[in-house]
Automatic annotation (TrEMBL):
A Gene Ontology molecular function term of the record: RNA binding
Originating species: Acrobeloides nanus
Protein name (record): Piwi domain-containing protein
Cited InterPro entries: PAZ_dom, PAZ_dom_sf, Piwi, RNaseH-like_sf, RNaseH_sf
Segments forming domain Piwi: 605-756
């Protein structure tokens, strides 16, 4: 019932958005477009610097004509009545939030499904390979089940089978639409009219390919249907170097991402082939460990667990949304951290009631559980507990443990961790090719009994195809220098990394800065630089900037600031009052949250740049000239300059890079799943956009706005964004564009029809 209710709500929302879009278009005297994809070019393009053959990560599927039948599965756990009242059943196949909860529910559904097959063999009498279950609500079978409409299968409980339930009820029901499909006829399921596309075959193939990993929990962790993470990557040919440990109780997990796609295949235009695309996947996960151990890796714990006030925000950023369990009870459910509270078990008081008077959390744990807290001065963890009168329940950190199988969200990562992950994921093409094959073997792509049962063969070698090597562009700097062509390694050297005596390649548009200052954050940190090093670094910064054509003098102030929001805010407030244009920070210490405050103050016109103290030290002590030049390039862009442009000799491409063409790019970023905020606290999707609407065609203006979560088709601010971009373009170039190219990124394939229907109406 809950699942059906949620689906109905989603359908109502989609209808509402569609009707709203129709009204908006009607107000502009426009009609919605039919969701039909543009025709393909009859032949590939001809522009090329050379031809080559490339290997892909696409494995072909050879299909036979076989019927397949689809059913909907609902699994409920009926609980024992409490005090004579019926209790809400456990919806095992319902929607859940959070990675560990999702993995746990998949484990439940797997266990219950296999028990159903074993218990009701008269109905499920065919080999196990004839059943394709997604461990949620979709079941495909090769033979029809003896079900007229729907049928319920009851399972009794046992000491090793859901003793907390009275019984388990599995309901299997025929779907009302597309009950039967045929595996061999691909053309039936492919159409340029997105409104008519039938994705049932694609869905079946996705589930069929996933069967070995879904039913092998000893070796695979599946959070969503498209990817798996390996319990022991060394079993599949990966090494420990592929799974480096990260700081703050995290590690990089290795897995595989796979998806079924219909492609033209080796015979080219006009043909349709089913295929599986396989990619290695590396994702940061939280270690399953005591929460206090994780906290000790994140911040410095003082006596009795005391934490510096500025580290509270670091903990809040790194732990909010994390799933934990308590260790002081025999049975503990999975709970989500909603806040880190700046109180301690020693000074936080639990309100009294008619049985117990007011008591500190420290004394409560000692009196109730016999636990003497080791860290009574540590901050408390806030967890929202249903029906708890205070809303958020406070827990000592040391009585909680991190639950296994949960990915690290973007919000829980520092810039340094993201950079470390990027380095770990960047591999040479030859190694990438090896890892693709290892992943294909790991997911049993070539040894899948379910695929064998339905007569599907997987082509053992990935698809190879002819490719064009496009002409490489040249880099154009300022100062009348000649364009710089790439060397034989495909890199463009513009004096970069050659030091102060190298040929001076001026920036195309050098910026100027009349008033600026510099500060060292956290001067008492272990990695802080001294005054002499800081002064020398800033001198080299200004020298390199002037060498590149920028107009910039010495900083008006060189000083230090404590690593807390109050001190930093005072510095930035003063900078606003004294009309500073730019503030350069050299950041020592372990703080990670002050960077956000710097960016926030840019709303007041203060441009900021933040650099790690270790990087500044390396520039001075090791003479890392290329690093300094990269820093100055970033400074020039921040101050409104333009480092360089690109050019290419082909006349058609030169025209497309000219001043009469406006490029607009949109990208959507959705919040990570599983956090479950509600109301005003609910995280919203971000719509980022950029356009070359400045005087020079390579000068882009970028910004972002918020929109309703995960509604790719509802971009109700699109009209305002386009209007502002066009106004800025006309103001800067004294003419309207002759060509507008809109690039859209970040929306799912299933939403393409909605995007065409309601967004692409500017032509």
């Amino acid at each position: 019932m809950q699942q059906a209710r949620a689906q109905n709500q989603e359908l109502r929302l989609v209808t509402q958005i569609r009707q709203d879009t129709e009204r908006r278009l009607a107000a502009l005297n426009l009609a919605p477009l039919e969701p039909i994809m543009a025709e393909k070019f009859p032949n590939p393009g001809q522009l090329a610097a050379g031809q080559l053959q490339v290997s892909t990560n696409v494995y072909g599927l050879q299909l036979k004509q076989n019927p397949v039948f689809r059913y909907q599965v609902t699994i409920e756990g009926i609980l024992v009545p409490m005090e004579g009242r019926e209790r809400k059943p456990i919806a095992f196949t319902g929607n859940v939030r959070g990675d560990p909860v999702c993995v746990s529910r998949r484990d439940d559904c797997r266990k219950i499904f296999l028990k159903t097959l074993e218990t009701y063999r008269n109905d499920f009498k065919h080999p196990r390979e004839h059943y394709f279950y997604d461990l949620k609500s979709i079941l495909f079978t090769l033979e029809q089940l003896p079900i007229v409409d729907k049928k319920q299968y009851e399972l009794g409980t046992a000491p090793d089978f859901y003793t907390h339930c009275q019984k388990i009820v599995v309901t299997v029901q025929k779907v009302t639409e597309k009950f039967q499909l045929t595996t061999g006829d691909i053309r039936t399921y492919v159409s340029p009219d997105l409104g008519q596309v039938d994705r049932s075959l694609q869905q079946f193939l996705e589930i069929a390919v996933s069967q070995p990993i879904l039913f092998d929990p000893e070796n695979h962790v599946v959070i969503n249907g498209g990817s798996t993470y390996f319990m022991d990557p060394t079993k599949f040919g990966f090494s420990d170097r592929d799974t480096p440990a990260l700081r703050e109780g995290k590690y990089l997990a290795v897995g595989a991402q796979k998806s079924v796609r219909f492609v033209e295949g080796p015979r080219g235009r006009g043909f349709n082939n089913a295929s599986v695309i396989v990619n290695p996947k590396k994702t940061p996960f939280h270690n399953a460990q005591p929460l206090i151990d994780k906290v000790a890796e994140m911040v410095r714990l003082g006596r009795d667990g005391r934490v510096e006030r500025y580290d509270i925000e670091n903990l809040r950023k790194g732990l909010k949304g994390l799933f934990v369990q308590s260790t002081h009870r025999e049975v503990s459910r999975i709970m989500r951290i909603v806040d880190i509270i700046d109180e301690t078990a020693r000074n936080s008081i639990i309100p009294g009631n008619e049985k117990v008077g007011e008591i500190s959390i420290e004394n409560y744990f000692q009196r109730t559980y016999g636990i003497v807290l080791k860290y009574p001065e540590a901050p408390l963890v806030g967890i929202r507990v249903p029906r708890y009168r205070e809303g958020v329940m406070k827990f000592p950190i040391e009585v909680l443990k991190v639950v296994d199988n949960q990915r690290v969200t973007t919000e829980q990562q520092s810039r340094e961790q993201i950079a470390q992950q990027i380095r770990a994921c960047a591999v040479l093409p030859s190694l990438q090719k090896e890892q693709i094959q290892k992943c294909a073997n790991a997911i049993h792509l070539f040894n899948n009994p379910n695929l064998d049962a339905v007569g599907i063969k997987v082509v053992p070698n990935p698809l190879t195809t002819n490719a064009r090597m496009l002409p490489q562009p040249a880099i154009v700097y300022g100062g009348g220098t000649q364009p710089i062509n790439p060397d034989n390694r495909g890199t463009w050297q513009g004096g970069v990394g050659r030091g102060p005596q190298a040929q001076s390649y001026k920036f195309l548009i050098p910026a100027s800065c009349n008033k600026w200052e510099a500060y060292l954050i956290d001067p008492h940190a272990r990695d802080a630089i001294d005054q002499a090093t800081m002064t020398e670094f800033l001198k080299r910064l200004a020298t390199e900037a002037r060498r590149r054509g920028m107009q910039i003098g010495a900083p008006a102030t060189i000083s230090t600031v404590a690593a807390n929001e109050k001190a930093l805010k005072a510095v930035l407030d003063k900078a606003i009052q004294t009309r500073m244009e730019f503030v350069f920070f050299i950041h020592a210490g372990r703080d990670t949250h002050l960077h956000g405050l710097m960016k926030y103050f840019e709303l007041n016109g203060i441009i900021t740049q933040d650099l790690k103290a270790q990087t500044a030290s390396n520039v001075v002590s090791k003479g890392q000239n290329q690093t300094m030049e990269n820093i100055v390039m970033k400074t020039n862009m921040k101050l409104g300059g333009l480092n360089h442009a690109v050019t290419i000799s082909n006349p058609e491409l030169v025209r497309m890079l000219g001043k009469e063409v406006l490029y607009i790019g949109f990208g959507t970023n959705h919040p990570g799943g599983g956090l479950g905020e509600i109301g005003l606290l609910k995280k919203r999707s971000k719509l980022g956009f950029a356009a070359n609407d400045n005087p020079h065609p390579f000068e882009f203006t970028g910004d972002y706005v918020f929109q309703e979560t995960r509604r790719d088709e509802k971009v109700d601010v699109m009209k305002d964004i386009i209007t502002k971009i066009l106004d800025r373009y006309i103001k800067n170039r004294n003419a309207a564009p002759k060509c507008v190219i809109i690039y859209r990124n970040g929306c799912s394939e299933g939403q393409f029809g909605d995007v065409i229907f309601g967004v692409i109406f500017f032509n």
